[in-house]
Every structure is written in structure tokens, then in C-alpha cells.
Here is the input.
Amino acid sequence: VLTLATGASAQTFPDRAITMVVPYAAGGPTDTVARLVADAMSRNLGGRIVVENISGAGGTLGAGRVAKADPNGYTLLLNHIGQATAPTLYPNAPYDSQAAFEPIGLIADVPMTMVSRPDLPPKTLAELIDYARKNKDKITYANAGPGTASHLCGMLFMNLTGLDVTTVPYKGTGPAMIDLIGGQVDFMCDQTTNTTSYIRADKVKVYATTTATRLPTLPQVPSAAESGVPDLSLSIWHGLYAPKGTPAPVVEKLQKSLLAALEDPQVKERFKELGALVVPPGEVTPAALKAKLAAEITRWHTVLGSDRSARN
Ligand code: MLT
Here is the structure.
């Protein structure tokens, strides 16, 4: 009976709205990726996908909610590198980043940019480092909480420059960006899926990209490498997950839908405009996401496990 039911449910799937959980606040980079993907998937699946932001604890509240959801394909998690840092930084989280999920596929890689409130005096990354050093008791760095992309970039930056400034955690870099533009916080490293439009509108000052070479979408922005901090290199990968136990035919249907969404020329173009790179079709698979997640959990356990600042 179960097989029959599963089989039948897979054939009729989806027959109601799907929830795609983003474990960070609305308006941030992950939210932007999710809405792009959800919109394209709902078109090719012929069903609605509603994005729900469940933020807090560096993304582990939202991920935990999906881990406990009915494994029927109607609740999904779109998460980024945070899925791989949680095992180290949130050892008491009520779920296992790998065992509690069915990986569906990788999505896109997103570079980051170091930005500040528009009236911060420094003009280059080197000047920002010098300014931060001279104002270390005043200057504040915004991030989305321990384990998030903005946290990892800030930690890397501070390790590489010997800086140790106050960090202000937000529920996502959507809200952090509002405070940065408003001057309530001084600088932040965030993904181009969020910062590109603000940089182009001169609402924030930009210093460098966390890439070896300049981004075609921000040709006027020096790379970290040419700014004298070549090891400030970070690209944020994203994956789509369902709860463990979601029937294989349903996972397969979701994987095919995600692949079709990422092959859509308009979706590819939109990601490109945001400085992001959609992964090749061969990586939009459960096996590729499973392997990436396992490798990244090991990588960040090594980096974070030995880093005092990792917990703030
Ligand atoms: C991050 O730093 O990981 C992002 O800010 C999360 C988000 O807000 O999308």
C-alpha cells in the first residue's frame, strides 16, 4: 500500500503549494536566489512554490524546521554554505546537516564584495584596513550570525589582516544592508546577489570582490587579489534539500524541475547579472550536492574549529 501511495503521490505531485524555506531574513542574498529558483520551478512544475523566511541562529532555526517537516516534498530548504558550517558552530542543533535531508541539487556559486556605509572615509581596501586598525574600538562589522557567508568572509578578512573589530549580527544581510545604508553599522562582506544593485546605485561604498580577478558585472571594482589580500577568496555555493525520507520519485521530480529552472535562459541571465554563476547541469544532482556538503563540512570544521572568532 505504501509503495502504491508513494507511487500515486509522486504521479500527482505537486497537487498543492510547496513551501521553500530560506533560513535567513527576507531581502538578503539567499532570499534573492530562492525567489528566482522558486519562480522558475513553479512555472515548470505547474504548481505554486511559496518562499518562507525562517531566520535566526545562523540559519539553523529554518534548517531545523525543514528537517522535522513531513517528508512529502511539500517543504524544501534552500541553504548555502551555512549548511556546512552548522555542524561545527551549532553542535546542539536538533538535526544533522547531512542525515536529516535528501539533497536535491547544487544551484549557483556567488562571489562576495566588501562594502561600507557610503560616508566611511577609506577609498581602497588597503585604506579600509588601515582605518579599521586606527578605529578598532569604534568601527562595526555587520554579518548574518555565526556560520553565515557574511560571517565567514569577515572572519577570513580579520584573520588575514590581524583586525579584531566588533561584529553586529543580523537575521540576514537584507536587514544588515538597510542599517549599512543608514550608517548604523560601518562595513560588511556580502554576496553580489545582494550588493550589486546597491553598489550600482552608489548607496554603499565598495572596496573589493572576494575573487582573484574582477567581476564582469562590477568591472570598476578591484579584486581582493589586486588589492593586496589575495587570500580573501570566497565563493558561496547554494543547494536545495528535502527532508530525509522524501520518496525518491518525488525527489527526482524536484531535481528535474530545479535543473529545468537553472537551464532557463532568463534565469541564467538573471544570475549572471547578479554576478552569480549557475552550476553546470551535472552538478544539479543529489550526488553532487551530497559530495559538496560533505567536503565543505570537513573544510570548515578545520578552519572554524581552530578559530576563536568563529563564535561571534
Ligand atoms: C549570509 O551572510 O549568509 C547571508 O546574509 C544570508 C542571507 O541573508 O541571505
